[in-house]
Amino acid sequence: MVRLSKVNPFKHETQNDKKRKARHAGRYAEERQTLDALKRGNYRAPIINLQPPEAGSENNNSDAAGYEVHEDFHPEDQSNPEADTLNVLSAWGSIPWDVMSSTNHNQPSQSRYPLLDPNIVAAARQRDRDIDQQILVNNRQKAMSKLFNSYLWLREKTNHWTTETSFHDFAPRFCRCSETARRTTAWIDLVDLTGQERVKFQYCDCMPRCVQVLASGFLASSPLEPSAAFSMRLLAYHNYAWHHSNVRMKPFSETQRVFNEERSQFLWNRNMTRQCLTKAVWLYRDLLGMGLDLVQATLRLTDTQKLAHGTCPACFGPNSRTGLHRLASVSDRLILSLDGNFQLRHHKRAGRQSAPLVTPDIFVHPTELEAVKEYITQQERLHKIAKKADKCADSHKAGNDVRNETTWKACDDTGIMGSCCRHDSVLFLANIHGTGENRALPLAILKKFLAHVEADRPVGVLYDLGCSLDNAKFGQNLVTESNLEPQFSTPTFTSGHASPLRYATRNNRLGALSHRCKYRNQQSNIKLASWLRKKFEQALVRRDLEKTIISDLVQTPNPNTPGRSHYTVAFLRSQWEDQVRVALEKNDTDDQQKKMTEFLDNEEVLESYRARMARGEWPSTLAKSNEMFQAIEEQGKAQRALAASLGTDYATLRGQCKSELSLLTLLWKAKSDLYTLAVTVRAEREPVMTTDAGNRLGTRLKERIMGAINRRKNPVERAIKLFNERRRDYLQKVDASRLLLPENQDLTLAEFKAMDLTDPLWNDNHFYHARAPWALDPNVRKGIKSVLFLDRVEEEVELITQELDRSITWACEYHRLLRSTIAKIDLEAQEPINPNNEFIDILPSFTSMKGKLQLLRSELDRHLEEHQRLMVTWAIDVETLWKKTRSQHTKSTHCWFDEIGPIKQLVSRGNIASIDDAFEQLTFDEEGGDQEEDEDEGEEDDDDVEEIDDRVDGPGGPS
After folding, report:
1. Distance (Å) of CA 824 to CA 299, 300, 828, 860
2. Among 1, 68, 413, 761, which is least packed by CB within 10 angstroms?
């Protein structure tokens, strides 16, 4: 019989176990301290040393796992670091050292063995956020169709939540479940414009909770389990406040909270209200956009018709040829302005972007931008265009990508490229991601723009970097005027939200810009007729000014022609053509002129040194004298090299320093530098000069601007002094009698500040051609300017007549389209209803065709009323402008005047009816009435409602 071992396997330690225990005693002690700290609740996460061990280092006291080996372990000799620290800190006895801080968790620790890798923890948290965000997006998409259907139905019932029934419970109209059906009760915070309350809300499982909350007049912040909801009138108020003022979410929610707490219940979870309000605001904006898309889909609008309705009818409306079309340069011309805005950038670390990027329709899709970049590469390869430096783009700050990389390295989206028509309506935008203002951005916008307009329509482009588009070989019907400054600048309608959008998510940033641009276009369309009338009046004012100048000139003798003839328009035009020719030739010699200017400036410095030496004005020390001799010698060598680059020798060029051409070159340089300062000073003063309701300028910014202007005072005074000297020297050489003319008197600082950038002083004509009439005769220069202004006035008048024609033609055709579509819906709604009619693809979640047709009819009726009010708003300006622009070259009749009369009567009757209803309601409230009769009328009203149709054809549809 075998003897059993008396060894207890749970307590017995072999010799190897004892050695291993002794070897890992240090690690075991640290693990014991960690466990004790976790039990006490004062554990501090260790600081992890992520530095890799040095290569080739040896540790004879480490085992295979990398832990330190303690061969001589004596627990009694070990000191407790925590106890030593507590003994030191005991001097401050009033401080509770054992209480954990709720904000600072990064306390140092002596442990070298982390429990979890922080990179793994961060990745796990990011993955969880992505999953939660995707679940939220999926739930929102599932509930959005029913929510939108309910929104349309409730908006029609409550007149956009402006009636007394705005907060009635319409949920029984959507829910067909019995009273004994299972219902869930949950708390929800309801926030209104004048109060707030936490209530218990009963939800039925047959429809999303957000639909049931909306049935009570509130929009939930979450589709499935909302914790807060906001009234529709509060969201509408915030929407208008956000458009017309600089409203940020946190101050608005805090103001609303304080205002409501004085008048209603106190909500204890108020810190989460701002996040819920943000979600509700974005949901409200989505519903507004879906409503507009529904109307456009019902009307079957083309891309051009969508631009006419949502952007600018004066540019994209149909043409009935009632305006002026005498000038081919502006006949049916469409003007597009392009520019970049780098204030609307986005920081990389701003907002957790868990959801995929959603590009609004007004933006160019990133895939379209990549296709344009590939197209440019193919064109460069096909036409063998060398990739050389673009001087224009390099000199432009926005177009220089290298500058952007250093300045905005913390941003992923560096700005916005925008486009607008000449009526300041936004057309398309392009998000600038990680680059500067490269040419692929405007080309992508142009490509998308040209796809929405007629192929044979001429298009003019205003772009400050338009010269860079010539290398792209893009568009045969594209007319580029690259030398004109753009009329478009995105800060005019987004400057108030530039800073908040930098720290929003990328989707919120693009969505906010799209929402703002659409609303701004809508407001521009309302003011379109008055805008056209205002521009016409401005053209007439300019006409009268230039007419006076031309009338005086044609009666003045012309000294530039033989005989006693007077100035004529033909002579002025010939002088303008000669000036353009010389200017084009002058552009080819700019480099030589700059080199000549540099040579003359350097030679003046050398001459001053030589004059000092001739007078015996030597430096005080021999070392300084040697430095001066060395500088003169080196500068002389540089001058000889510069003269050689100009194709002549140094002695010959030095002898021409006092010639007429040299003095003119120095004057050109002084005047160019002075003009650069004038542009800079004007740009700094512009915010102060143009401050109005739409241009916000605080005291601090105004002080900074005035300080910058004052700091430029000394450089400006030096530039003015140099310019006066150069002009005196040149005129003394050419014609001393011209020094007595008023325009050649010395310029002062006060005159410089009051001078506009279009002042005749900045005319460079006399630098090109010293003997031409357009360069010497001020009357010729003034006459050329007036002739060109009158040409622009004529073009402006023709454009205004064409745009007026397109606007009112679009208004009439759109009005007829709305009425004809409503008639089609009424025809399809007659029994028996065809379930496969032309509206089957609209609102596919709406299973009942009858309910769908009723809903579409109500939407189009509301849209028709808005369009009729728009036409009435235009009526006075259209009538005035129509009368003033009629001539022998225009038509005198238009369908507008046949349709506007009945529309005016219809709108006025509607306003009078609403006023009468208000008076009747006011009288009833004051005098009272028969309560029993009121109850009977209420019962009759309930009987009049199509109960079956509303339940079957309601917005929720079958569950």
Report:
1. 11, 13, 6, 12
2. 1
